[in-house]
Structures are given as C-alpha cells and as structure tokens.
Amino acid sequence: MDIVLAAILCGLAAVLYGIVTSRSVLGASAGSERMVEIAGAIQEGAKAYLGRQYTTIAIVGVVVAVLVFIFLGLIPAVGFVVGAVLSGVTGFIGMNISVRANVRTAQAANSSLQEGLSLAFKSGAVTGLLVAGLALLAIAGLFYTLVNVSGLAPNDRTVIDGLVALAFGASLISIFARLGGGIFTKAADVGADLVGKVEAGIPEDDPRNPAVIADNVGDNVGDCAGMAADLFETYVVTVGATMVLTALLLGVGLTGGALYALMALPLIIGGVCILTSIVGTFFVRLGKSQNIMGALYKGFIVTAVLSIPALYFATSWALGGEMSAPIGAAQQALEPALGTSAADLEQNFLAATPFTGMDLFWCMLVGLVVTGLIVWITEYYTSTEFRPVKSIAAASVTGHGTNVIQGLAISLEATALPTLVICAGIIVSYMLAGLIGIAFAATAMLALAGMIVALDAYGPVTDNAGGIAEMAELDESVRTKTDALDAVGNTTKAVTKGYAIGSAGLAALVLFGAYTEDLKFFTDQLGLEGPVNFSLSNPYVIVGLLLGALLPYVFGAFGMTAVGRAGGEVVKEVREQFRNDPGIMAGTSRPNYGRTVDLVTKAAIKEMILPSLLPVLAPIVVYFVISWIAGPQEGFAALGALLLGVIVSGLFVALSMTSGGGAWDNAKKYIEDGNHGGKGSEAHKAAVTGDTVGDPYKDTAGPAVNPMIKITNIVAILLLAALAH
Amino acid sequence: MDIVLAAILCGLAAVLYGIVTSRSVLGASAGSERMVEIAGAIQEGAKAYLGRQYTTIAIVGVVVAVLVFIFLGLIPAVGFVVGAVLSGVTGFIGMNISVRANVRTAQAANSSLQEGLSLAFKSGAVTGLLVAGLALLAIAGLFYTLVNVSGLAPNDRTVIDGLVALAFGASLISIFARLGGGIFTKAADVGADLVGKVEAGIPEDDPRNPAVIADNVGDNVGDCAGMAADLFETYVVTVGATMVLTALLLGVGLTGGALYALMALPLIIGGVCILTSIVGTFFVRLGKSQNIMGALYKGFIVTAVLSIPALYFATSWALGGEMSAPIGAAQQALEPALGTSAADLEQNFLAATPFTGMDLFWCMLVGLVVTGLIVWITEYYTSTEFRPVKSIAAASVTGHGTNVIQGLAISLEATALPTLVICAGIIVSYMLAGLIGIAFAATAMLALAGMIVALDAYGPVTDNAGGIAEMAELDESVRTKTDALDAVGNTTKAVTKGYAIGSAGLAALVLFGAYTEDLKFFTDQLGLEGPVNFSLSNPYVIVGLLLGALLPYVFGAFGMTAVGRAGGEVVKEVREQFRNDPGIMAGTSRPNYGRTVDLVTKAAIKEMILPSLLPVLAPIVVYFVISWIAGPQEGFAALGALLLGVIVSGLFVALSMTSGGGAWDNAKKYIEDGNHGGKGSEAHKAAVTGDTVGDPYKDTAGPAVNPMIKITNIVAILLLAALAH
C-alpha cells in the first residue's frame, strides 16, 4: 500500500474517532434547565466571538491569498487557502464540542470525579485528534494530489511551494486565533477577577459578576480554539518543513522512489502516532489514589511507549525494510554543483555524513525523550507539589510585591532546563543524521500532538464546568471536584505550551536550514555573487540577530498592553453595571452579560490586528532596508540572522511567560487549598495579584510567540521564492 | 608631548578635580546634631557593609589572581590586581563622599533648591570624574609602563594579555559590587516598603521603621559604590578592548609608531572628554524655570558639544595631523598570512576597506549620537511627563494586577528604540571603518562616562537627603525639595543603566572581534585545523547562542530570588521588632537599626557569590563540554556563539528591566504628585506594588547584566590565551 495513502487513512481514523467520541459526549445529560441556560449563554457568546473573529481573519486571508497567487501562482494559493481553512475548522469544531462538554462535565461531576474526568477528557480528545488528523490530512492530501495524482516529482518546486504556502496559511490563522483568543480570554479573566474577587469581594464565577459569562467564553475561545489553531499550525509547519528540507537536501542525490519514501516518512510517523494516541485515550482512568494527573499521565505514557515500536515499524516499512543502509550518501554529489567549495562543504552541517534508517529512528526517539523531559520539567515548575509554586505561595505572605518578584524569578529560572534539553536534543540528533536528524526529531515530537492537545483541551472544559456549577448553585461537592480537575488543567495547559515552544526551537532550525538551502538553490535567480555570509563576524548578521531578538519583546508588549487595556475597560463596564443597578449585587436583578461579552469581543478583535502583522512584515522590511543599505547579499544575511534571533529570544520569552504564568496561577490555588491562611487571607490577595499578572503572560503573549516564530521563518522562505520568481 | 602621557595628565586632572570638589562638599554644613547622628548611622552601616563585602571579594580576588599568574604569567596577574584594586577604590571613595554629602544636601536644601542641587551634583561629579579618571589612569599607566618604560612593542602579547587581565580585574570586582550592592539596597528597600508603607501605613523614611537606615545605606552601596564599579569596568573594558583589537587587527600591517598612535588614540579620547566633563559640571545650574532635569541636561549638553571639537583635535593630534590618509590599508597583507582564503577575506568584516582619521572621527560622533539618543529614549520611558509612566499610573487605578501588567508591557516595549539605535550605530560605524569603527564609537560613548556617572551618583545623595530630612523632622519644605531632586534621580539612574548596557552592546562586538582575531592568532598553538566555523548553519553555533542567551535569564532569576528572599527576611525582622516593642510604633522607643543593617549585609554577601561566578564559569564549562563532544573546533565555535548569545539576550533583559523599573518608580511618584487620587489612594497602593516589583528589576538584576556580559567575553579571551600558553 502507498505510504501516503496509509497516512491519509490514519488521518481519517482520527476524524472518525472525533465523530464517534463527540457523539458520546453530546449524548450525556446536560443537567438542569438553569445549567442549560447558562451553557447556552456561553455558547452564544463563543459563537458570536468566533464568527466576528473569523470574518476579520477572512478579510486578511483573502488579501494574502491574492498576494500569494500573484507572486507565487495557483498551487501555492490553493495550499494557503487549505491551510487557513482547515486551521479555522479545527478551532471551530473543537470549541463547539468544548462549549457543550462543559455543562455535561458539571452534570457528570455530580455523579463522580471519574465521570467528570472522563467526559472532560473525551471532549479534549476530540479536539486533540482533530488537530492531528486534519493537519495530517491537509499535508498528506496536498502531497498526494500533487505527486501521485498530478504526477509531479516529489521535489518539484510546485510541491515545495505548495507545502510552504500550506504552512503559511495555517500559521497566519494561528497567530490571529492565538492572539485574538488570548486577548479575549485574559481581558475577561483579568477584568472579572479585579472587579469581582478583589474589589467586590465576591467569589470567582459568581453570577452577580457581569463579566462572568465573558470569562467562561474566554476559556473556550482562547484555551480551546486558539490553542487548537496553534498546535495545528505547529504540526503542519514541522511536518511540512521536514518534507521540504528532505526535498531540498536530498532531492538531487536520491532516486525518485527513495526520495518519495523519505518525504512520505514524516507523514506515516504522524499517522501511526495518531493510532497510538487513540489507544492512549482509553487509558485515562483514575486509579485507587484518585490522582487526576496520574490518570492523564497514564494515557500519555501508553501513547509514548506504544509509539516507540510504531515508529520503528513505520520507518522500516517506508524505507523498504532497509534500516541499516546509508541514505544520505548521494547528497554529497549535490553540494559542489551549487557552487560550494570543498572546504566549505566539510564545515557545512547540511552535508553531514550519510545516515541510515536506524539513525532516523534514534532521532525520533530523541524527539520523544525531549517531549517527555519538557512535560516533566514544566510540571515541576507549575505543579503545586514542588518548590517553585510553593516559593511563590510563601512569598505571598509578605505581600503583593514579593509575590510578583518571586513569580518573575521563577519565570526566568524556568527557561534553564528546557533550554539544556533542547540543546542536547539538537546535538544528539545532529550527530546521528545532521540537519535531517533534527527535522525528524521535531516531527516525532509533533506526532504526539493528538495526545498532548487532548490533555490541554480538557482544561477549559473543567474550568467552565466549575463556573457553571457555581452559577447554577449546584452542590458544593461538585465545585470541589471541578476545582480539582481544573488545578491539573493549569499544569497541562502549561505543559502544552512548553511542548509547543520547545518543538518550535527545533522546527525553527529546520526552517532556517530550508531558508539557507533555498538561498543556494536560487543563487542565480536572486543575482547573488556567491554563498551568503552567515558568520557571526558579519555585522549584518549581528544586526539581524538583534532585530530578530527584538520581535518577541515588541510582540509581548503589544499583547500585554492589549490585555491590560481591554481588562481595564471590563473593570469600568462592570463597575458601571454595579453602580447603575444595585440590585445586581443584592442578587435581585440579572447583570447584562451580553454587553460585557460584546465589549470584550470588539476589544480583542481590534487589538489582535497590529501585533499579528508584525512577524509578517518584519522579515520583508528588514530584507529590503538592509539590501538598500548594503546590497542583497547582506540583506539575505540579516534576514537569515533575524530568523534565528527570533527563535533565540522567543524561546526564552515564551518559556518564561508560560511557565511563570502557570506557577502564579497554581500558587493561588495552593493557598486556596488552605495554605498560608487560605482564601481571604492577605497572602491570598497577593496571590490573586500574581495570578492576574500571570494571565496575559501565560495565555496571551507567551503562547502567541510560538506561531510568531514560525510565521517569521515562513514569510522569509516565501519572500525568497517570490523574489526568485 | 607623548600622547599617552597627555592622557595620564588628563586622568590626574580628574583626580585633582575630585580632591578639590570633595573638599568643597565636605566643607558645607552638616546641619543639626540629630542630622549628624542619623548620617553617622548611615555612614557606619555603609562602612560595615563595604568592609565585609571587600573582604569577601578579596578572597575570591586572591584566588583568581593566583590562577591568572599560574596560567598567564606575572604581568597579567599585576594587571588583574591593578584593575581589581582601582575598581574597589573608586567605589569606596565615591561612597564615602556620598554618605557625607547626603546630610549636607539636606541642610543645603534648607536654604534653596539650587544649593541642594549644587551640593548633591558636586558629590556625584566627584564619583563620576574619579570613575573616568582612575579608569583612564589604570589603562594608560599600564600601557605606558609596558611600552614606553619597559620597551615592549605595543602589540606584544604581554601588552595585550596585560590589558585584558586589567579589564578582567575590573569586571570581576564590578559584578560582585553591582550584585552585592544591588541585593543589599533592594532587599532593604523592598523590605522597608512592604512592612512600612504597605503594612504599617507609615511613610517612607519614617524613623519608626527599623529598616529605614538599612534602606539609606543601600542607596549608597548599591546606587553609588556598585554603580561606580560598574562604570569603571565598562570604561576599562571598552577602551582596553579597542586597544587590543587595534593591536590584533593592525599589528602586523602598521609600523611601530603608527600603531602606537592608533592604540593611544582611545586613551586621549578618554582624556579630552574628562576635560570637557569637568567644564560641563560648572554649567549645572537651575534656570528661571527651576527645572532640575534641565539643569542637569545643561551640563551634559555642554560636555557633549565641547567634546566634538575636542575629539577632532585629539584624533588629528594623535595621527600627526593626517586626517584623510588611509590607515588600515596595510592590514590586508596580514590576513592571508593567517591562512584565510581570498574569498573568505572578501567577506570578512575584519578586513574592511582602509579607513582614515576622519572616518574614525565620524565613528566617534556616532558614539556621541547613540549616547544622546539613548539618554533621550530612556527619559521618555522613565520620566513622569510622557505616555509610558502615565500609562502605568493610569493602570494603577484598576488595581495591583493591571499596574504590574502595564509595567511589564512597558518594560518589554522599552527595548525597541534603543535596539534600533544600537543597530544603526553598528551599521554606520562599520560602514565607515569596519570593526575598528565600532570600537571607536563605543570608546567615544564611554569617554562621556565622567559626566554620565555624575548625573547618576547625584541620585542616591538626594534620596538619602530626603530620608534624613524626614527622620530629623526638618521642615516639610525641605522634603518637598529633596523629593523633587529625587524624582529626577530616578530618571538619571535609568539613563546611566541604559547607557551602560547600550555601550555594552557595542563593546561586546569589539570583544567578540578580539576573540575571533585571537583564535586566528593562536590557530597553531591551539591545534586547530583551520578557521573556526561561526556560521549560523553550524548547530554548535546555535547551541552556543541558546546557552549564551540563557545566562542573563538564570542570572536574573538568581538576582530576583535573592532580593525576594532577603526582602522577606527584612519584613519578618521588622515585624518582630514591632511586635516585641510596641513603643517603636508609638514613637517612644528607638528601633534597633543596626540589627537590620547587619541582617541585610549578611544576606547580600551570601547571595552575591553564586550568581557572580556564573558568567566566570559558564564559558569554561561550555568550551570543555562541547570540545569533549565534538572536538575543539566546535568547542571554540560554541564558545564564540555563547559570547554573542549573552549580548543578544542580555541587551533585552537589561534594557527591559532598567527602563521598566524606572517607569514603575516614577509612576508611583506621579501618583504621589496628586494624580489618580494621590497618596493613600487605592491607585497609590497598586503603584507601590509596582515600584516594589521594579526595584530588583532596575537595581539588582538588570544593571548587573552589563558586567556579566563583559566578564563572559573576557573570560573567553583569557581562556584562549591560557589554552595557547
């Protein structure tokens, strides 16, 4: 059977799983009339937001699609549209399940913790497997259509441009979804917390708070729809970049069949891991200890362990059983043809020594190990059981200031171990199989996306379930159960973000490799005099690194300001509602939830545009400005350095923000569990401040850095192609 | 007259100015007995701290000096000791003036704002000119002794090693002083604020607060002694690196006399700017508008403008009047001899086209312009008059959380313009005269250090004066005047830090250039197979960049944690004093100030050791680990990339922390001026939290990144020399 077709079947299996499981979720009881009513308000708000967001994105999307068509042709334009539309579809379906699973989870938690967990996790698994499945279908479908149906060579420029454009489509939607959703969710959350918990002294999710529905809508549009689009993008870009790099590096040296097999390998890797992820979902069950994190880990570990043999057999099958025959040998014939001197060649890591299928398999294991370590490290930094979170909680005793200082310290510190793990992953996979090895390690990381997203998407469902339980005045015991589920959700959400940005670290190297290879390929068309000088001794490289490193900072500033500003507006709106109608606080009249949702929707859409365009425009501006000053040779050098500058700085900004934010959140939960005086104590007030600060860190600015890094890289590659055309 | 001797005379002029001016400061009235008593307590605390700190540093210093002697020989060991001792002396004298000027400033402010400003500024000018003067004397003296007295060639290895070791000595002390002082000052400040302003509701500097003396001591050991050591280091490293780079790049090509002149040029640049700085100090006078910042700017602008002709004549004189003859032509003969191919040469920015004296002069102007722009940008971000500070103040109205979020957003944003200025500075000076041009731009920036430090060191004096006025219960009008002086101090302190880190951005490139040139020089001794591959396509370069970028984060985490921890201890100590003796709050019994000073001293010394050693050990560990994995060729590549990674990431960490911290501080002051409800309002409480968070940002972690960057680079250069020996 054809490898790509097999991968497509695996993708369809994921979709099938999604359909069956979502039916099972929707078949559960939605509880009392009051619960249905509340859930209805959340559904309505979410739908309204997503509708308006997608309309805005569609306008940008159509403009960009036309530009892609003009500069690159029809196939890339189609690829762009497919990537963009499927990314949107993933977020849309995931969110629709999520806003229906929330109320059912609250109802199920009424029976038992296990049932609540099951329902919430199933809903997450639908989103997770749709992300992986649709992403795989998009790439495999495009590749199959162009190569097997249209008969193009696997390394034909049209195929390469199509794959890159597909990734661009996914990335562009993703950054809007991540940022828009992130601003919405945190503006609502920050606003609701400040005016409710801090000022009015009413609990979280109190129905008297006019921002409470907006807050619950936010969980879905940010943590579910935004996150789904983000991981869809990460998947498409990583797998796509691995295929493109394979085509560029080995395209001349390998025969058609061997190249096809190697380019199809990332697809089948994704395919078999969808199957292991589906198996893993059935292992998420509470043990005797009732440990929720343990239950989720069981699913993850089963998937990871099963993936090891699955990856071996997939690789062996794709390579025709030849696990120990050298693959990359022929590439050395390629390099001199592109005008590189023999001395350069020796130093050029793209022309690594030949590697075998076995080497690639080891690289995939590196990817799995990196994933496991990042999960473990993130848990250490964000779980209530370890030093970091406890230290923030302890610092809360001495006030707001020390809480924030300690949280910032932890956020800085949390970058260290992941960076060391990523560096080790780079070195080991590079030693095994050169840049191709790094690409396959990253692909194996992303292959687990189905399971990882399932763990994450379960978070907003439980968060909402808690809110609904509170508002529908369900028994206190239900809230206790949903709170327990939610605390774990904070950690799993941080884990996904750490995983996404960690994989971005590897993927960005692959993208940079694709950029440099493309530069070589286009040397003549671009009118270059010779190889571009990417040495650190070139001051334009330094300038590129500095400008690239600046992007995540400016981007972060935009995101934080947006949340601060929109959150402040929510506070004013809620204060006004309280002032105009004293009946709200007395509980005799209903606040106007819709007006608050509407306000946040408008604010989020308005605020997301400018920062989203930053990574799209920056590479273009830097290239043209430096070219104008010092010629295209240095323009391309600065642009290449910009790509690495973004990742070098973005990795740290994103890791520190997502881990720090998760730690702040759980430090508050730790205090609420009765430590340091518990709820209502001065320490708790300080912890609420820390949590508020962490909100835009972990849910707006931090996670959006991941698509930002990728989009910068992809735009640079497209710019090359457009200039060469 | 010999150029170096002339520079030495200028250095002596600075010392003379220091002696005369400090006499004039000390001659002023110290006020009432109560004031003398309070000032005495501050002096005593500062002396005790500095004594203990220097003892600790001395132990580390002796060990390192022995290591330098063993691995590099006698002259470098002497250079190291000179650098270390003079750095310590600068801090010691500066602080001694500062703790005596504080009480006299309070007394002078009793008469008029002008007299207060005059006294405080004079005290700052003593420190400023001693920093520049002693730094210049150290380098010029060492160079003169080795070249003119001992008769070594200016580019003799002994001279180069001596200069690098001198810089190392200054850097090592500086990082301890910056970090130890920074932890002391902010632990005391944060602790005093939290327990005094926030908990007990007593004003800042209330004598009932047992941490109040420690807070005032902290201003001196941190903002004065620490800052003086920092700028001393920056000066020595920048000027020294420019000389070393000149020797390495042009040493073979130029004749002895021409090389001597070019190496002496940075010294005379420093010399003439000391003279213009002295002139500038006499222009710091209030105009009719009573604008304090305007008065300080007058001095700065006079210095900067006078420096333009001074630099021209100094350059012309050093180069024998040959401003338009090409200087660097001969270097092209040098490069091929070191085994570089002609193609590489063409791309190698070290082998720039020949430059003239006029080109160098333009580069110096670039340095002055960069300085001016950074001053202006920093003022924009930290002064109460512009959008950033006002936006933080406005965000305080909605609570602690939104204040901190907005402050973080501003701190991220504040990196953008300085980065663009630095990039422009790099490009323009590189186009004028290659790497040498960047070096001279950096030298010209640092040449203004005398004036810049004067502006900065005035800050702690006024801060203390306010505290003394409060404690000695002087008339309210005195406090108003010292507060006005102090608010400007917050901006000038931020300006100095922005300037220091901005110059570090340029200096680090110079140091990286020295590292790569040294690598070429030592190719045979180090057993290298050829040029090291610093291309971004080399994964070990990526790993080096990532590890380098990690250092400022880990370092920042250490610094923040240290302040949080030590500050928390202060809170506990003060609470205990309040609890054990209710008479303290009633005002009937005196708190035990000494015990708090003692506690902070011990904490600061303990906390400074580990993070200070991080940048010393990191380059060594990275080199040996990567060499062990992939051979010395890649080890040197990763080490080189580490150096650039530190600056690429450190620049942003430092800029964001110092600007953000300054903005938070002044947002509080802005509210205290009566905006958003003024003192005591909810907005004010939120602003106090922001100020507390900003404290370790701007005074501990942020500024210490500057010496950290330099020390990493210098250790790498010394490691090369040690390995080659």
From TrEMBL, chains A, B:
Please name the top-level EC class of this enzyme. Answer: translocase
Q: Which reaction does it catalyse?
A: diphosphate + H2O + H(+)(in) = 2 phosphate + 2 H(+)(out)
Please provide one cellular component term from the Gene Ontology annotations of this protein: endomembrane system
Q: Which keywords appear in this protein's UniProt record, sorted alphabetically?
A: Cell membrane, Hydrogen ion transport, Ion transport, Magnesium, Membrane, Translocase, Transmembrane, Transmembrane helix, Transport
EC number of the protein: 7.1.3.1
Which GO MF terms are attached to this record? diphosphate hydrolysis-driven proton transmembrane transporter activity; inorganic diphosphate phosphatase activity; magnesium ion binding
Q: Which domain of life is it from?
A: Bacteria
Marked site, Determinant of potassium independence, at: 493
Q: How does it sit in the membrane?
A: Multi-pass membrane protein
Q: Which cofactor does it need?
A: Mg(2+)
Give its localization.
Answer: Cell membrane; Endomembrane system
Query: Membrane spanning segments where?
Result: 57-86, 125-147, 159-177, 235-254, 260-283, 295-314, 359-382, 403-428, 434-455, 498-516, 536-555, 609-630, 636-655
- Stated family: Belongs to the H(+)-translocating pyrophosphatase (TC 3.A.10) family. K(+)-insensitive subfamily.
Assembly and interaction partners: Homodimer.
As for what it does, the entry says: Proton pump that utilizes the energy of pyrophosphate hydrolysis as the driving force for proton movement across the membrane. Generates a proton motive force.
For this entry, the protein name equals K(+)-insensitive pyrophosphate-energized proton pump
Q: Which organism is it from?
A: Pacificimonas flava
Q: Its gene? A: hppA
